[in-house]
């Protein structure tokens, strides 16, 4: 009699080794981000700049507390001197919290697709002299079109994330992610500025401006009090407090930077632009399809709920297996989709502030007035609806060579 023996323990162990490895999403993340506390905080690859920014904030404030605010405690009655010290300490903590809320959260990253969308267009069969017809080759269109307030906006395909970017989305070449309402990659906070952290970025910059003005002002107050108490000139009084001289120069230079950014972003908010759009599309020359009026633009930034992240970085996932390859003519390929060269630049205007608006060099969501190629099969409706918060109708002409999606914005 033939007896089938049960598998040995070593064989069972070998079967377990073949099971896919279970990891957290942040452990398999394909972007350049750095995660802390088990994926609870996400930073850009230049996370070290956050430490530098904290240093540039805390050290001057510590010098101010030790050599200026502490000397003013006894110079004001009714505990006003103590209030000067308390306010600067509390405000500094507030600025640092805003910095961490800007740099340590998902700015609006769109999850990557695991495979390209299904192409809708093919090349017709090529007939040869023998009467045979070659197999048509699949083509993936490089752009889709959506209508925003009657203006055509191009939506470009991202080869890295394998998706069509929603309007106002761009791929950051530093973080290697597609980000919703991409504004710029800020080297001082070490993170992209997008839909989910732009509000905190503006609050951080404006609060840092007020902190600089506060320290600058009370350094002069301290120098003036020395001048009156010793009946001397203001310059001799400043010499007696070298810490005030250093802080006055430091805060004066800093307020030009953070204050200039505050004013610039006030202008962007009032006109509903991003930094990337301002330098690339020049809405002063063409109509901005996203402009809702000054009140509506400020309401969109400060009085609307921040959408939840599209990524659960702590979710359990299986490690993706290596993509299968097939041999064709002695070479290995992963897909039969042909990439078509893209020619979708808008005019001749390029971003001139490359440290502020960094992108992978592609055109993302700029207003256009002419039709381009057909749409692919990615579900653009749901993505645009989730971004704009409104509905729209599909107007793709599947029989023609171009198509559009109409997105009415109220």
From TrEMBL:
First-level EC class: transferase
PROSITE patterns, per the entry: DHHC
EC nos: 2.3.1.225
Catalytic activity: L-cysteinyl-[protein] + hexadecanoyl-CoA = S-hexadecanoyl-L-cysteinyl-[protein] + CoA
BP GO terms, sorted: protein targeting to membrane
InterPro entries: Palmitoyltrfase_DHHC, PFA4/ZDH16/20/ERF2-like
Location within or outside the cell: Endomembrane system
Coarse class of the protein's main subcellular location: membrane
Residue span, Palmitoyltransferase DHHC domain: 156-280
Name this polypeptide is given: S-acyltransferase
Native source species: Mikania micrantha
Domain notes: The DHHC domain is required for palmitoyltransferase activity.
Protein keywords: Acyltransferase, Membrane, Transferase, Transmembrane, Transmembrane helix
Family that this chain belongs to: Belongs to the DHHC palmitoyltransferase family.
Transmembrane portions of the chain: 47-68, 80-101, 200-224, 245-268
One Pfam family named in its UniProt record: DHHC
Molecular function in Gene Ontology: protein-cysteine S-palmitoyltransferase activity
GO terms under cellular component: endoplasmic reticulum; Golgi apparatus
Membrane topology: Multi-pass membrane protein
